[in-house]
User: Which sequence fits this backbone?
């Protein structure tokens, strides 16, 4: 029996849900009987139906006696959907293979125990590393109360994101820009600072053919509500959910004007330097259910997040060109005096995207 091959298929299905299932985990399920796949499923938008339910429905009576390969421990509690453990038992599944336990305290080993109590054989641990990486944001939100943060950078070989005059369109090529849109589709939200809105006026949507419905929540860090009402993220706030993170007790007229455009304001406390407390901000995003946030700029925001230890992943696009030291660096200074204080990452993947390179790194 090819347990590993079928588990890899379940993990691949789970990835389909990234960016569209929050606050739920992204789960894939493959049902196999007599060496033949009889059902497949993955978590649907907004987190329901769950992957197991989808696979069982497709398999029908063929699920009886089958092995279920599920990318995360099946849930055993009632929420907006019935427990998946009950569905697997009722479907007559004979064996379940899962890579990791669900850290949700409502599940956390109890789903596995319920399946075993029903006489179902359960194997745990196959494909654990990949399963944990897929749902790293969901796990982080449960354990630390905040979403996983991916910092996306697009620079020259020497780490500059623009020339000395601010010109940055386009450092990377078209294929790299398409790949960046795919990153947006796989994250719950995309965040930028107010200066980037004022300078570039981006839409922050996913504009890949067939994936326009996968545009993430747009988040703007604007401590003093300086973004003009004519900015595209404001003008189209009713088409794509748009949240502004700002300080408490801001200008009442600006608050009312933004709210009338459909912008949702999230108030957070200030630091001693009268800036947004980013730890508090991300915990508030976690409280709202976000599990994966893609940060796209600019250099000041990148430095603030790195200094605060809030960057979990880097997605670094590099173009084969040099700008020089008078360009604008991808990351502004954040006050490190010694190498021992440097933020350290380990490479996860390196891929060629057209003429550019995408390096993916994970915080050590």
Assistant:
């Amino acid at each position: 029996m090819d347990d590993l091959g079928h588990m890899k298929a379940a993990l691949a299905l789970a990835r389909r849900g990234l960016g569209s299932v929050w606050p739920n985990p992204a789960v894939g399920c493959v049902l196999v009987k007599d060496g033949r796949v009889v059902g497949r499923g993955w978590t649907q938008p907004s987190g329901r139906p769950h992957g197991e339910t989808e696979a069982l429905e497709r398999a029908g009576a063929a699920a009886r006696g089958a092995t279920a390969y599920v990318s995360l421990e099946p849930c055993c509690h009632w929420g907006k959907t019935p427990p998946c453990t009950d569905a697997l038992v009722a479907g007559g599944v004979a064996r379940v293979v899962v890579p990791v336990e669900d850290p949700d305290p409502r599940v956390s080993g109890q789903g596995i125990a319920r399946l075993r109590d029903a006489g179902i054989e359960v194997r745990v641990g196959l494909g654990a590393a990949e399963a944990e990486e897929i749902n790293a944001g969901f796990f982080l939100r449960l354990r630390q109360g905040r979403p996983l943060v991916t910092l996306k950078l697009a620079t020259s070989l020497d780490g500059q994101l623009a020339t000395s005059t601010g010109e940055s369109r386009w450092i990377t090529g078209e294929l790299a820009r398409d790949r960046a849109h795919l990153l947006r589709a796989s994250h719950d939200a995309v965040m930028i600072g107010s200066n980037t809105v004022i300078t570039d006026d981006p839409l922050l949507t996913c504009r890949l053919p067939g994936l326009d419905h996968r545009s993430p929540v747009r988040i703007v860090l604007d401590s003093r509500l300086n973004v003009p009402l004519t900015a595209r993220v404001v003008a189209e706030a009713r088409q794509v959910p748009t949240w502004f993170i700002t300080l408490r007790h801001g200008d009442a007229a600006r608050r009312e004007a933004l709210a009338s455009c459909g912008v949702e304001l999230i108030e957070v406390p200030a630091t001693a330097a009268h800036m947004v407390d980013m730890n508090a901000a991300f915990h508030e995003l976690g409280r709202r259910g976000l599990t994966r946030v893609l940060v796209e700029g600019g250099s000041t925001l990148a430095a603030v997040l790195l200094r605060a230890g809030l960057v979990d992943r880097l997605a670094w696009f590099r173009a084969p060109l040099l700008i020089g030291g008078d360009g604008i660096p991808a990351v502004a200074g954040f006050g490190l005096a010694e190498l021992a204080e440097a933020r350290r990452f380990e490479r996860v993947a390196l891929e060629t995207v057209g003429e550019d390179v995408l390096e993916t790194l994970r915080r050590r």
The mean pLDDT is 94. The radius of gyration is 22 Å.
